[in-house]
Amino acid sequence: MMITGISLAGLGGTLMAAGTATYLKSPSCDTVVPVTARADDGGGGSLGALSGCGSDAGRHTAGMTLIVAGAIGGAVGIPLAIAGSLREEPVARIVVGPSGAALSWRF
User: Fold this and answer.
1) How open is the CA angle 46-50-53, to the nearest 5 degrees?
2) How far is Cα 14 from Cα 69, in angstroms, rounded to an integer?
3) Which of 31, 30, 25, 14 is nearest to 60 (CA)?
4) In the 8-state DSSP scheme, what is residue 44?
């Protein structure tokens, strides 16, 4: 359980870093992108309009998805690592008394 928690926390941190890099490398959502009117609209020139996120809207979504997945991995992995480290190791005990001996195993 501890190894799984450490792995999830490490993977979560890596995903968060990759998501942040992906999100920051994508163009800003408030840039002015020249939009060309289609010929069937009666126009043909450049209109210059605000574009939502340009053609790379998927990068913003992918970056945020990686950040959220990394945060979930860290949120699950850290408690797993802590709980796994608190677990007691198996203990074998031999008790010898006046009437005999006994073997106990605790795990």
Assistant:
1) 115
2) 10
3) 25
4) -
| Residue 79, domain extent | 2-106
101: β partners: 96
Task: Write out the H or E segment, with its range, that includes residue 28.
Answer: none
Overall residue count recorded for the chain in this entry: 107
Beta bridge partners of 95: 102
> pLDDT, tens digit, for every residue of 58-72?
888 889 999 999 999
Q: Locate tokens 């840039």: which residue?
A: 31
Residue of 73, 53, 60 whose CA lies nearest to 21 = 60
How many whole angstroms separate alpha carbon 103 and alpha carbon 96? 9
Name, in order, each residue with C-beta under 8 angstroms of 105's C-beta and a sequence gap of 6 or more.
90, 91, 92, 93
Number of domains in the chain: 1
pTM score, whole prediction: 0.58
